[in-house]
Give the backbone structure.
Amino acid sequence: MKRKLCTVRLITYEIKNICGNPFTVFFSTIFPILMSYIISQTYMRQVPDAVRPAAITGIFITMGMVVPMSIFLIGHGANYSQELEKDVPLRMNLFGFSQSGMIIAKAIANLIFLTGVLLIYVAASCLLLDILIPQASAVAVYALTLYGFGVIFFILSHGIATLVKKFGPTYAITMMLYFIFMIICGMMGIQTELLPKGMQTIAYTLPMTYVSKDFVDFWQEGSYNFAPFLQAMLFMGAVSGIVLIFSVRKEKRMIK
Amino acid sequence: MLTINNLEVKYGSQTALSIRQPITLQQGDRIGIIGSNGAGKTTLIKSVLGLNSYTGSILTELAPEEIAVHMQQNNYVSTMSVRSVMETILNTNIKKNKKVWDLIKFFEFEQCLSKKYTVLSGGQKQRMTIILVLCKDAPLVFFDEVTTGLDFETRQRLMEKMVDWYKEKDTTICIVSHYYEELEQLVDKLLILEAGKVVDFDKKEVLFHKYCGKTVITLENNNQNRNLVLDFPQLKASSHVIALSCKDMETEKKITDILIRENVNFKRSNCDIEIMFMNAKTQPSLHMGEGLLKGAMS
């Protein structure tokens, strides 16, 4: 009898698990498309014609970040905490699935789901919005950034859910983080420069701020200094990693 | 296969389980773990599975995945069909795997495969985990109150099927239950726990003989019956029952002759676990440890 690791069947199971959660499907697939469309149709009317395509592209870039946040931070946090509340991971563990195998399968399944949702988001945005055609390197950087956010948010929400173990508090924490990130990183239309000094400092430690503020600048042409953005990515990744490692160590079974 | 020695589990400052003498589970053992609520039965299973912090030792060559367990609460995701969940856990296609499909048919579970876990009835939920546990074919299996909350008929059918399944197999089974008639069907040894301590551990016949005598006669507890059996040794039993200990055939004959003559209904048993348990737990200091080593060695 071997310890069950991450298998294709386990990944398929996790994809079904994600698709079976209507909140994840709605907030990751429908919500960003709806929001970008509504904002572009209402606020953009006040923007001069000359800069409107760039502004709409900015909305597309910013709303794209909602996709990994919804899937990984909210969706995975909610799904996994519900499982923990019912001891489902323990049950799977007792059936021989290793904890690391289950985490990897969940991460891969969420990344596959993210790919599908991003394709839908891009297709819908191309149909509904007047987006500037990007240079290939900008697409690559943007895609990598979204996947990077996905991994970091997965680590963070998994760690929070494992530590808290209850759906209610996990959902409250992840939702609070979701809205804090949205507000201070300029994803809700509030410019970071207009925030109080202390909040600006926090905002610049988060990579989402750089995406919503700067990514449109090199969308079609031009160069960009990625150092502050990468530093922010590393910082958020490190904090999330610490939360996950702490939670997993706390959960380890005694017999190995 | 597995030896427990000097095990102590504490929840805060309270000792939930303390096993001083060694307890050895051997291949093919069928062990019933009995005790009142809070006796430490589930704590013992959790310790063996490594889900509890404990001091002492649990020595086994088995890897955690070689120990199968049916916990009191078993839950699965409800975002997909039961079939998908089972196929993932067993890593197989149910229809193409004869062994699994036979087991599903054996437990009459075919109709449940397309449903979601939350809509299954209590009995169906229990059957699902039992199928998964049996499919695992582990050398050591724990069943923690498998039939609690199920109606009499469902319980009977489940136990019959389990007895049938394990016939001819040398799996070591440890089953926790408050339904002693189920244990009578399935187990050959008993581990009696009370208030976190081991009262005794041995073959059930040995324990019965030790605490009850050769046989036990039970009859309704009323004034007339009490007067009839006044001269015979009585055992502790439920308040509605008089339990008489028969040390030998002669005593048994004397009692039954009186009861037949007086036209009193009675039952005779040589393996009544309930009465044996009630009498064992009242005298722990007398027997604790004495039977343990014997039980471990037999």
